[in-house]
Structures are given as structure tokens and as C-alpha cells.
Design brief:
This protein has about 1000 residues and is of the alpha+beta class. The protein folds into 5 domains: about 250 residues, no CATH class; about 70 residues, no CATH class; about 120 residues, no CATH class; about 375 residues, no CATH class; about 80 residues, Nucleic acid-binding proteins (OB fold (Dihydrolipoamide Acetyltransferase, E2P), Beta Barrel). About 35% of the residues lie in helices and about 20% in strands. It contains 28 helices and 35 strands. The strands form 12 sheets. It has a 5-stranded antiparallel sheet. Strands 12-19-18-15-14 form a 5-stranded mixed sheet. Helix 3 crosses helix 6, helix 6 crosses helix 9 and helix 21 packs across helix 22. The two termini are about 55 Å apart. The N terminus is likely disordered. This is RNB domain-containing protein.
Length: about 1000
């Protein structure tokens, strides 16, 4: 069996768009003007979960695309062209045909502008008004609402990733769009690239065309108008000609008729709002509950129509005191229902603010006095370990209401509903600090709550956010009781076929077919101190085939113990993955199971007690060139487990790695290196040789990927237990836990070494798993991604020439040539995974981390059932069918994106916390005796003294600070921060990818932490 590799193909934006339109340079910046856009498409967007071929437009009659470019100036190679709808010789004839058909179908609808005489009907009057509006806006200036909609919040640019699996609304659909507390509706008229994103063009009630993300669409009603009518509307901000004008008038007429029906339906829903809330809220007044919008619609209406469902949606979204849209609402329509206590607190504080009640003034005076005491303690104990002591102050019932209100306001979410906390918070913050601080209100609320002892200085707002559902129990008695219950359930599981949620498998279901690997060494390679060890590697040489050998990837097999019906499986599905947070970790499975002495799941746990370990083994036979020759998937037993770590392997192989880096010093002490014998080293060299050949193959296939640094914050000392959120007690805090700030790189795992070796063999296992499922026609979820979209044919060649030996391109260089990077997605087909170099048809099925990722465990259950079916002589179908897998792919994708967004905010918070504390400790030359030293005993360079960054976004308005800001990546700190408006004015219009010297201006924490930068002009002239 011979597996061949294909060349990756990718097309430039120009090659992707057959129909070209010139757009006015007034409407686009110099950089934005070259981004592509399509006028209409009913096919999935590049970020859709639906797999699609490499971006090539195959049917130009079905997809009429536009490509926005800057007009040519006279004398610069040609005459400036006029705006055209489509560069198609038959377009005028096609438009006339569309008009004729619309006239025939619509009866007394709209007429072509050439036929217009005097406005006599309401539609004609609307057309006349709109036409006048267009003539008065020759500069095509956008509305104020659209400017706010297009703006960004601090640290809010990645929010759409949490809902990127929202389906794209078809052309002619009515959509409600929400962003930055702007709520609008309209009809989808097209889609395409803009500002390095795939965006929809939506015709709004003002007649404007807004560019929106599909994730901004919170409600969709298909087919408000025909696809043809939507196309005629055009995608320009304002109608560019009479055809577009006429089409938009007809669309506006239909929207007006439908919204009138919706407004009438909303009256009945509003009358039942209190009843609905009482029916769906949690019985515990402190707990949240969840409900879908459609479930509430069924309560209000027996058989709701689309209009009634939309009316229900509008009423619920307009009642944020009771109902809060979940992060996945555009996909799931899931609402979080506020606890009764929180609703009462919010209502009461709003009333006090309205009355300007003295309760608020008295609380502010008392709180500020306590906060000043805590500030002095924090300053004098900055270098001490963290401790907690009871405070002397107490709180009245009214004061506790205000405290609960302030604490509840520190909750992250997209600004898609009016925030009921904004107005009362503004009043309280003005009373506390004397000025309006809404731009960073969350930061000041957090500071105040820390000051009065409600939050610890090291409190984690992500962990404390109840919607993340972390298990924060720290009472030893409660934890011991839970562990005992789990172990008791394990011991009492006797039924061979588990039925109840407490049932485990009493014996290994695959015991009779496991392949015993005997004394073959199985190398478990991870960081020193890693807790969940779920993969091992073996090399099997073939005596009569000296150029060929087998690579075996052994993966821990929790499916041999935990059935899909077990309560731990249900909990794992909800949690999705192990969360590694700065202050503590939240494992997917409890330690009492993972490290059980006789049935433990972490590799090495049983073998050290002389017991074999259950694994699923993914094997590939490869030749000396790294080509696949054969593969196998088996249930196995490993006995000779060798625990190794990355540093010891690198030392044995003579590899020196430059990662990770520690810009603030304090590199943690490393444990002694292991003594690795030569036979093990020989196997590891063979695996490394295989890994290197995979990189060479990817480079030969025209593959590339970008390099970017990231920061990781880890605890160097323990954190005190978090205080009970339901108990507002008086506390005083001293000191702070020790942290380590390290820099890693996306490209560090691609540098030849032990991490690279492990990464490539894990990819091998995922590819073997995908082929095994595919060849047996067993449904399975695969991770996929499509190629980046270069800006031109020349850009493709430039990118290929910029690659290093690992096929990687520095991000600042890549950004100059790429206009779009499609998001990854999941599919049941073996589609391409461009990000790691897997070609179409091979596929990539994640199976290597079942102790840490729920999706991998699903794959193991599927393999288990298929192997049992094979043993019985049955057709191998697995446990789940294709329909189940497709639905699971969507659920897993949403969970994954949510966890990525949450982890990104969490890490950003702690990185900025670290930098802020560093600045406070060494400000104005203080504490120089504490300045870290390097390995040679010399003071380290100031990590904030010579910062450089490169632009990763175009400037945008920040809706809260009202400043124009642009994001800048700082490689030496591994973070992406914001350059301020004052600096941008001095710079002029920046180019994405341009490098410049920067300095830190200020840092704000809270639920949306941010660092604001300025340009260091004293160093700019030397660059």
C-alpha cells in the first residue's frame, strides 16, 4: 500500500474573483481598497463549518464576485474607471430582464427609474426621499450608527471567534444584526472579503449597505425577497445607480411591512414577560438557569409563526435585566436567565441611582476609607507571599446589595444587548472617583472591590465568572466525600453492560483482542511534572526491510473504563477539555480515576506497579524518505513504559533550543537531566529523522505557516483558595503569589528537537486514525482548514521565498501579502488541514489526548465499538452514525472556540497584571535591589525599555474611549496591544506589517484588560 502526497494549491484573491469592479478610493483606505469582496453568493463562507474546495470560483454564472481596488489615477497607466455593478458585457441586458421579471411577478410593485414621473404612492414617495438622500451624500459618508457598529472595544477584537460557526444567511434573508450595543436589521445582498474577514452586505432600513460578520446575525428569516432582487441592491454603502436604488426601495417596503407585524406581535409577548421569567428561572435565587428562545416562544404561542418567534426574540433580548444572550446564541439561541437575587439587586440599585439615594453616598465614603487602608497594605507587602486575614469592617444589608451589584457587573460578554449596569455604574464610579470612567469601568470596579476586601488582589475574574461553570469547591471534607463516592461507584460496577450513570466498565471490553507489545519500550515524553500523560511512542525496526520501520503511537484508553453513559462522560462533554489556568487547573477527569493504582488512566501509573496499561495504538509503516507504506489501529497493552522529558532528550541528542524565553528574568530552576541510554537515543534519532522529512515534504508541497510569539503566565508558588462568592466577608490581603512570564513561539514546536519529534508523531497518529475510519466507512469528526488567501499571484511567490527551513514565515512579512486566513472547522469528511500540512483526502482525526479533550474520547468510543463489531464478524459501523457525528462536530466546535476565547482573555489578564505589577515595583527607580539578574549575575535588560511592534490591524474607532486605535503585536512580550489615537495622528496612515518602536502608556485590567501603547519617537528615527 503506497500513500502519495499532493501539492497544496492556493489562489490569490485576483484569481478567485472573475468579475472585477472598481470602487472609489474615497470609500476605502489605501490598504482596505485592495481587499476582495463578492457581490452575491449562496455558498458557504470560507469560515463555514461546511468543507469546501480550495478557494476557486468554478461557476461564474452562479457566483458574481467583486474585487475592490483603488481607482487608477489619470496618467498612471490608464483612465480612472467609473463604478460598475458587474464587469459583464451582458449585464445591462441581464438587469433589464430582471426588471421585466420583477415587474411581471410583483404586480403593482416598483418601476424602473426611467419610468418614474411624479411620486404618487407611498413607495414612490420613499423612492423620491431616498434618491434625494443619495444626491446629498456624494461622499458616501456612513451613518453614525454604522460607525459605532464598525468600531471595536478594548480587547474585544476576537469576540466573534466564539460564534464563528454561525451559519451564513442566504441572499434575500432578513437578518437582525447586533454589535457594540447597536441593533439593526436588514436584508442580505452579498458577501465577500473585507478587512481580512469574510463579511456579509446587509441593506438596512436607511438604504445603506452595512458590512457585517455572519456572527453578528442574531436572528434570520430566509426569503424575505428573492435572490435576484437582493443582487440588484448592490453592495456599495449607498445605491450607486437607479437599478440599485429601485431594488433597495422594494426591499425596504417589504422590511417595513414585516417589522410592523413584528411590533404588533411583541405587545402580546411583553405582557407575559414576568410570567415567563418566573417559569424559567432557577429555583435557587442565587443560581443561573438556561433556556432557548424557541422554548419560550412555545410557552407564549402554541404554534408560533416566524414573525411571532422573532417578536419573542426581540422582547427577550430587550429585557437584559432578566435574560442574557449566551456566547453561542447566534447558533444555539440559548439564553442565560439571571438569578432572582441578581435581578432584585440590579433593580434596587437602579432605583437608588434614580432617586440619588444617600445610601450610595454613605457606601462610597465608607468604601473609599477601607480601600485606602488596603492600598497601603498592598504597597508595603508587594514582595511577601499571599496571606488573608479577617477585616474589622462589617457591611449592612444595603451595602451588601451594592457589593453584589458591583461584583455581578464584572462579567464578560459581547455588547449585543443594552447593558443594564452601564448607567448605575457610571453614577457610582463618578461618586467614587469624581470623573466619568466608563471607558475602563470594569477596571475601576475591580480595583474598588479589591480595596474593600471583597476580591483578593490575585482573584481571577474568568474563574469567578459563574457562566464558565468551574468547580470552585475547596472544602477538603466535601472534596473527600466526592472522591469516595466515585471510588465506591467504581468498586460497585458489576454489570457487563453499563446502564446507570454511576456504572463503569467492570472489565476491559477489548481485553480478548488487545495486542501485547511485550517488552517493547514505550517512551512517554512530556514536561517535567506533567500530570496527565496520555501518549507514548515506540519504534519497531523490520529485520528483513532495513530501510523501513514502524512507528507506534500508544494513546491512553479511558474508553476501556468510562462508558458514554457514565456521569463522568457527561461532565467531560460539558467541560470539553482540561483547563490549565494560572492559579489552578481543572482536569477533565478526577485524579482519583486518572491515577487509580489498579485502573488508572495516566500512562506510567500502572506499569510502575507491575501492571500492563491499556492503550489504543496507531501505527504507520514508513520508509527512509518518510513516506507511508502501511498503517494499523489496534487495542494494545504496553508494559515497558519509559518516562522522559523534553530537556533530557534535547541534551542527549545535542540539541540547543532557544525557547522558552523569560524577558522578566526569574527563569525557573530545572530538575536534573535524566541519564538516557544509547539504545533509547537511537530510537529517538530515528523518530526525529522522520519528523524532519515531514517538514521537507510540506515545503515541497508549497506549504507555509506564520510565526508569532505568545506569552504564557504560570504560577511559581501556590495561590490561596478563592473565597466563597456567596459569602461577602470582611478581609484584608497581604502579598501576592509568585508568577513566571515566559515567551513561546508558534514556530518553536517546528524547530528540530524533542517537542518537534512529539508533535510530528502525534500528527501521524491523527492521519492514521482518519485513514482507518475512511477506509472502513466509519463516521468520524476531522479537524480541517483551508489555505490562506494571498493578495496577488506575486504575493504567492514572495511568501514561498520568505519561508525558513521549517516552512515558516514571520507574521509581519506574511501580513503584507495575505488578505484572509480561513478559520479551522470540523467535518466528517477527510478534508484538507492546511494549518499543519495535511492534504485533502487524507484527513486529520484527533485521537491523541482523550484524557484532556472530550472529542478525542468520542473517537476512542467509536473505535472501541468498531473493533468489537469486527471481532463478532459484524459490519464495522462504530457507535455513532454520521448524523450524530455531524451534530457533535458543531457542539465540539462551539465548545472549542469558547474555551479558546476564554483562555485567551485569561492569559491576557495575567500577562497585563504581571507587567502592571512590574511597573509599579520598579517605578521611579524603586526597589533596584530586587531587579532580576541573568545567568552571569548581571542585571537583565529592561524588558519594557526597547519594545518594538508591528501593525496587525487597520485603525478603528474604540466605541468606549472614542479614540481611533490600531492593534500592534509586540514580539518580545508575546502580546497584541493597542496604539493610541494621538500616536496614530503623528504616524499618518500605517501599513499592516510595518514595524515601529513603542512604549507602554497605561494598563487597565478588569474583564477586558488592555494595554495602551505610544510610539517611542526617540528611537523611531534610528529604525
Amino acid at each position: 500500500m503506497k500513500f502519495t502526497n499532493r501539492h497544496f494549491e492556493f489562489r490569490s484573491a485576483a484569481a478567485m474573483h472573475r468579475t472585477v469592479v472598481r470602487a472609489s478610493a474615497r470609500s476605502f483606505s489605501a490598504n482596505q481598497a485592495r481587499y476582495a469582496s463578492s457581490s452575491s453568493s449562496s455558498s458557504p463562507s470560507p469560515s463555514s463549518t461546511t468543507p469546501y474546495p480550495i478557494p476557486t470560483i468554478k461557476n461564474n454564472h452562479q457566483r458574481q464576485h467583486q474585487f475592490f481596488q483603488q481607482d487608477r489615477a489619470p496618467g498612471a497607466g490608464g483612465k480612472a474607471k467609473k463604478n460598475l455593478i458587474f464587469a459583464n458585457r451582458n449585464h445591462a441586458r441581464m438587469t433589464e430582464e430582471l426588471v421585466r421579471r420583477a415587474r411581471a411577478k410583483e404586480g403593482g410593485g416598483w418601476k424602473h427609474a426611467r419610468k418614474q414621473k411624479t411620486p404618487t404612492t407611498a413607495a414612490e414617495k420613499l423612492l423620491s426621499d431616498l434618491n434625494a438622500t443619495v444626491k446629498s451624500k456624494q461622499e458616501a459618508r456612513v451613518s453614525q450608527e454604522r460607525e459605532v457598529f464598525d468600531s471595536t472595544e478594548l480587547a474585544d477584537t476576537d469576540e466573534s471567534e466564539e460564534t464563528r460557526f454561525t451559519p451564513e444567511a442566504p441572499l434575500g434573508s432578513f437578518v437582525e444584526i447586533r454589535r457594540n450595543e447597536v441593533i439593526e436589521y436588514g436584508v442580505v445582498a452579498g458577501s465577500g472579503f473585507k478587512d481580512r474577514q469574510w463579511q456579509l452586505s446587509v441593506i438596512t432600513p436607511s438604504g445603506e449597505s452595512w458590512s457585517v460578520l455572519k456572527e453578528d446575525c442574531y436572528f434570520t428569516i430566509p426569503n424575505l425577497c428573492s435572490r435576484d432582487l437582493a443582487i440588484r441592491c448592490g453592495m456599495e454603502a449607498q445605491p450607486a445607480n437607479e437599478v440599485q436604488l429601485q431594488a433597495r426601495v422594494e426591499v425596504l417596503r417589504r422590511m417595513r411591512r414585516m417589522t410592523t407585524e413584528v411590533e404588533n406581535a411583541m405587545v402580546g409577548v411583553s405582557r407575559q414577560l414576568n410570567t415567563v421569567y418566573e417559569a424559567v428561572r432557577a429555583r435557587n435565587p442565587k443560581e443561573w438557569s438556561e433556556v432557548t428562545m424557541s422554548e419560550i416562544a412555545q410557552i407564549v404561542h402554541k404554534n408560533p409563526t416566524s414573525v411571532e418567534i422573532y417578536a419573542t426574540h426581540k422582547v427577550l433580548m430587550g429585557a437584559p435585566i432578566r435574560f442574557v444572550a449566551s456566547a453561542s446564541y447566534p447558533v444555539t439561541q440559548l439564553l442565560s436567565v439571571r438569578p432572582r437575587e441578581e435581578v432584585e439587586d440590579l433593580t434596587r440599585v437602579i432605583e437608588w441611582v434614580r432617586e440619588k439615594n444617600s445610601i450610595l453616598d454613605e457606601f462610597a465614603d465608607k468604601g473609599l476609607a477601607i480601600a485606602e487602608q488596603q492600598r497601603r497594605i498592598a504597597a508595603e507587602s508587594m514582595t511577601e507571599p499571599p496571606t488573608v486575614a479577617p477585616g474589622e469592617h462589617t457591611w449592612t444589608a444595603n451595602e451588601m446589595t451594592i457589593i453584589r451589584f458591583l461584583r455581578a457587573s464584572l462579567r464578560h460578554g459581547r455588547a449585543v444587548q443594552m447593558d443594564p449596569y452601564t448607567v448605575p455604574l457610571g453614577y457610582i464610579l463618578r461618586r467614587l472617583y469624581g470623573i466619568d470612567m466608563l471607558a475602563h469601568g470594569d477596571d475601576y470596579v475591580q480595583q474598588f472591590l479589591v480595596g474593600i476586601g471583597v476580591l483578593a488582589p490575585w482573584s481571577d475574574l474568568v474563574i469567578n465568572d459563574r457562566k464558565n461553570k468551574f468547580d470552585l469547591e475547596s472544602n477538603p471534607t466535601v472534596l473527600e466525600r466526592r472522591e469516595s463516592a466515585i471510588l465506591r461507584a467504581l468498586e460497585n460496577s458489576k454489570a457487563p453492560t453499563p446502564v446507570h450513570p454511576e456504572d463503569f466498565y467492570p472489565a476491559d471490553p477489548l481485553a480478548s483482542i488487545r495486542h501485547d507489545w511485550g517488552d517493547m519500550p514505550a517512551y512517554v515524553i512530556d514536561d517535567f511534572g506533567a500530570e496527565e500523560l496520555d501518549d507514548a511512542l515506540s519504534v519497531e525496526r523490520i529485520p528483513n526491510e532495513p530501510d523501513n520501520y514502524w512507528i507506534h503511537v500508544h494513546i491512553a484508553d479511558p474508553a476501556a473504563l468510562i462508558p458514554p453513559t457514565n456521569f463522568l462522560a457527561e461532565k467531560a462533554a460539558e467541560q470539553h477539555e482540561t483547563w490549565y489556568m494560572v492559579n489552578k487547573s481543572f482536569p477533565l477527569f478526577p485524579n482519583c480515576i486518572v491515577h487509580h493504582p489498579t485502573r488508572g488512566l495516566s500512562l506510567g501509573t500502572l506499569s510502575k506497579n507491575g501492571l500492563p496499561e491499556n492503550v489504543l495504538t496507531f501505527s504507520a509503516k514508513v520508509d527512509s524518505k518518510g513516506e507511508f507504506l502501511d498503517y494499523a489501529v489496534r487495542a494494545g497493552l504496553i508494559r515497558n513504559v519509559k518516562l522522559l522529558n523534553y530537556d533530557s532528550i534535547n541534551a542527549k541528542l545535542g540539541i540547543v533550543s532557544g525557547w522558552p524565553r523569560y524577558p522578566f528574568g526569574n527563569e525557573p530552576a530545572k530538575p536534573p537531566l535524566l541519564d538516557i541510554d544509547d539504545s533509547i537515543a537511537s530510537d529517538l534519532r530515528l523518530l526525529l529523522d522522520y519528523a524532519l522529512r515531514q517538514t521537507t515534504k510540506r515545503i515541497d508541497m508549497n506549504w507555509f505557516q506564520f510565526i508569532r510569539t505568545n506569552c504564557e503566565i504560570s504560577r511559581a508558588s501556590t495561590f490561596p483558595d478563592e473565597a466563597d462568592l456567596n459569602n461577602i466577608a470582611s478581609r484584608l490581603y497581604r502579598g501576592f503569589p509568585k508568577l513566571t512570564y515566559q515567551i513561546t513561539s508558534i514556530g518553536s514546536d517546528s524547530e528540530p528537537g524533542s517537542r518537534y519529534l512529539v508533535a510530528e508523531t502525534m500528527k501521524l497518529a491523527a492521519k492514521v486514525a482518519s485513514m482507518w475510519f475512511h477506509d472502513r466507512d466509519i463516521p468520524m469528526i476531522r479537524r480541517c482548514s483551508n489555505p490562506m488567501v494571498p493578495s496577488s499571484e506575486e504575493a504567492i511567490q514572495a511568501l514561498l521565498e520568505m519561508r525558513n527551513d521549517q516552512g515558516l514565515v514571520a507574521e509581519e512579512g506574511l501580513l503584507k501579502h495575505i488578505i484572509y486566513q480561513p478559520a479551522g472547522y470540523y467535518s466528517t469528511k477527510p478534508a484538507m488541514h492546511w494549518g499543519i500540512g495535511v492534504p485533502d483526502g487524507q484527513g486529520y482525526a484527533r485521537v491523541t489526548s482523550p484524557l484532556r479533550r472530550y472529542g478525542d474520547l468520542v473517537a476512542h468510543w467509536q473505535i472501541h465499538r468498531a473493533l468489537i463489531q469486527e471481532k463478532r464478524g459484524q459490519k464495522m459501523t462504530g457507535l455513532y452514525d454520521t448524523e450524530w457525528m455531524e451534530k457533535a462536530a458543531i457542539r465540539i466546535a462551539m465548545k472549542e472556540q469558547y474555551s479558546k476565547g476564554t483562555n485567551r482573555r485569561h492569559n491576557r489578564y495575567w500577562a497585563l497584571m504581571y507587567i502592571k505589577r512590574w511597573r509599579e515595583m520598579f517605578a521611579d527607580g524603586k526597589n533596584r535591589d530586587l531587579w532580576p539578574m541573568d545567568k552571569d549575575g548581571n542585571p537583565i535588560e529592561d524588558p519594557l525599555g526597547n519594545l518594538e511592534g508591528y501593525f496587525v490591524t487597520m485603525p478603528k474607532l474604540n466605541r468606549l474611549s472614542k479614540e481611533i486605535q490600531a492593534q500592534v503585536q509586540i514580539p518580545s512580550l508575546g502580546i497584541k496591544e493597542y496604539l493610541s489615537e494621538a500616536t496614530l495622528k503623528d504616524l499618518g496612515f500605517p501599513e499592516i506589517g510595518n514595524i515601529l518602536p513603542v512604549k507602554v502608556r497605561d494598563i487597565h485590567l478588569g474583564v477586558k484588560p488592555t494595554m495602551t501603547l505610544g510610539v517611542d519617537f526617540s528611537r523611531r528615527s534610528s529604525m
